[in-house]
Please model this.
Amino acid sequence: MGRRRLKLIFGSAMVKEPVIYQLGKQFALVTNIRRADVTRDQGWVLLEITGEAEELDRGVAYLESRGVKVEPAEGDLVE
Amino acid sequence: MRCRECGAEYELQATHVCEMCFGPLDVVYDQAALKKVVSRDRIEKGPKSMWRYRDLLPVEDSVPVVTLGEGMTPLVKAERLGAELGLRNLYLKNDSMNPTNSFKDRVVSVAISWARAHGFETIACASTGNLANAVAAYAARAGLECFVFIPVDLEPAKVVSIGVFDPNVVAVRGNYDEVNRLCSQLVESTPWAFCNINIRPFYAEGSKTLTFETAEQLGWKLPDEIIIPIASGCQFVRHRQAARELVEYGLVREDRVPKFTGAQALGCAPVYNAFKSDTPERVLPVKPNTIARSIAIGNPSDGMYVNRIALETGGVVEAVTEEEIVAGIRLLARTEGIFTETAGGVTISVLAKLARAGRWNGDEVVVAYVTGHGLKTADVLATANGHSRRVEIEPTLKSFREVVKI
Model:
């Protein structure tokens, strides 16, 4: 089992879509929201997902296919 | 260590994210104990390097540090640049004079010292170039195994100056974002100390020494305003912390911190974009496209904190075009004899832009942090008419007199 700490960033088109629910339903992943800031037209969610490596990749690909921007929770640390 | 968001506390360890809320972790100190120890006299009697501030760094006294003599770089009074910009008290902290010619030597010296003392045998980093350069050099100095992860298209000059230290260079076929994601996953599955990831809280602390030195070199005074280039925003946050510590420990006369002003390239300006918006703490990622590659971070980890600090201290975040970056490099070279890389070009051109817009009355003490050497990115000048006053002549006096008007 592995885990990823993700920051999901939503635009206005995505705010109403239950993507985190779908993530848990369509993939063998456990989702755990740690922090969020969602308004009517945009928002971000810090989310932990746990599962097998392949399933983690599939889950992230699904989110991106739905138009969610998926970043590591801590942002870009490259320096 | 303490979480910046929720305040959860942790034992000192190689981790950078709060397990509770995923906020960033900062090293905290026993301030009461430090107050009894720290003094100007004790610092001034220390080594002529940034390690004179060791009491304020997270490396225990018993630990042998990994050092190449980093820090105590020149603080230059910029008379000619100041005259051009109407600033009578302009200073440049020239951190390109560090051992690997960038500010990164400070943070890496702390990170590798901590990692070696805590049993790590391999040092790694994900880098836009300057960090990899420093990590490779300091790992060689420490005798540790080293892995640096860089984008495959990194500037050739930077690759050469990394490779000479013989690290394992992993050139990733992807952009910075993708290098970052890969390394975030590797942290979970390797026993390595990634300077800018899992040991980031220690690494970040090294940044403070730049502001400590600035104050000491000004005669233990804090300037009115400091201009700092913004990449992840990590160092910006630590500089405010450094100023607070200088005040807290009575090392400076002032009881206020300077204004902190950030500089970005418009080609990668997520922090500037948010600063100009109604929601400055909501920093939205961008796709970087700028010659200032060492600060081209599209989703900066500390972006929201940069804007918070700029607003709290009365600073601003400003951004400049690609042409202005090159003009900034030239302006600094022409007026002060200092050759800086593109990130320094960003800083200087933001300084110039703000000065020309009338931000200062001319008497304020303003310091600009010049964080890397121009030879690291000399190629940008080659493609932008690097020798603007060059002439070609025959090897005769006649030809010289015909072409060169003296």
Chain B touches chain A at residues 5, 16-17, 20-24, 104, 125-128, 130-131, 176-177, 179-181, 183-185, 188-189, 196-197, 200, 231-232, 234, 282, 284-285, 297-303 (CB under 8 Å). The mean pLDDT of chain B is 95. The first strand of chain B starts at residue 2 and ends at 3.
